[in-house]
Amino acid sequence: MKKVLSVLLAVALVSTLFVACGGGGTSPSTPSSGGTSTSTPASEPAGETTGGFKVASHNAVIEGNAYRAVYEDQMSEAVELAKADGLISEYNSFVANNDPALETQQIEQTINEGYDIIIVNPIAASGLDAVIDKAVEAGITYVNADCVYDSDKILNVVVNQDAWAKNASDFVIETLGEGGKVIQFKGIEGNSATEIRNARWTTDLEAAGVEIVKSVAHNWSDVESKQLMSEILASGLEFDGIINEEAANGIMDAIEEAGADYPGCITSSEEIAWIRRIADINKDELVCPFIVVENPPGIGATALAIALNIRQGNELDPAKMTGENAIYYDPQWIMTYDNMQEMLDSVADLPDSTSVSSYMTVEEAKAAYFK
Prior knowledge:
- A six-stranded parallel β-sheet has the order 5-4-6-7-8-14, with helices on both faces. Strands 10-9-11 form a three-stranded parallel β-sheet, with helices on both faces. A three-stranded mixed β-sheet has the order 12-13-15.
- The two termini are 19 Å apart.
- By secondary structure, the protein is of the alpha/beta class.
- It contains twelve helices and 16 strands.
């Protein structure tokens, strides 16, 4: 697993789609030693190919969005690795700056210019049906990354937020046991990731006899999480642990400034500053059980690795997919007290301002999702 940095805020297709995306029914680029590639017409099957593909990445926004900035950086790193292996001959990145009309225009441009692979991290989960139809008709491998786009004509490659959440609920249940009481810190009410996580947590905790005594939303903000935790502590509410998504530093700020005891457990996400802080709290002995689970913006680079496999004619394994057109990537980087030093060493070179994020190489993706 390739591990790279990110900053704080991150199947089987229908049979006709496999024909459109694979080597048999499309026209992959001819390998080139230069920075460009040429394509045979989409109507002329080119047979099996091994590389030289022309790739475009479409990102909704970068400036002001740390998660998407890292998504972009990791995509670029993965592209350089694929270029070195002769899989990619040309790569261009397009950013729509949250302008749906510009996003559509940019995708149409890459379709018209004969790109072989298009990876899209969209502004929204709707509004692109027309360009998707055009891309599929042209024999382009179109992969939607990071959030699910409701279309049976493309492949979605997204982080498995249910698996992300289950790591946390399993840990809380194992640590506190039946009768435990927890405070739940959500991200943003109505956000798809938050809703998936909330559904997993409430279901699992209730079944295990762990009570959520209070649920609040901090909007993934350390400022808001600190304020909310301060109010909870001042209220005198009794609780044993905290189940949380993001913004753990704000929660801990409130606890330490109030001179309160550390909770019986706390869950969080992947910020390097938090990873080092919770490790330091437990450096001499375990005083605050914790789990850290990545939510990787590297999902874009993983989507690229999957697309490159499809383009080479490799066949997705239906048993490894969700539904007919989705791949859900399970988080790989997980730290608890038991493996604390090993995981600290793995991020030793990263600054506090970043977060961990992993992505799959082309070969790892092949082993994980293909026959």
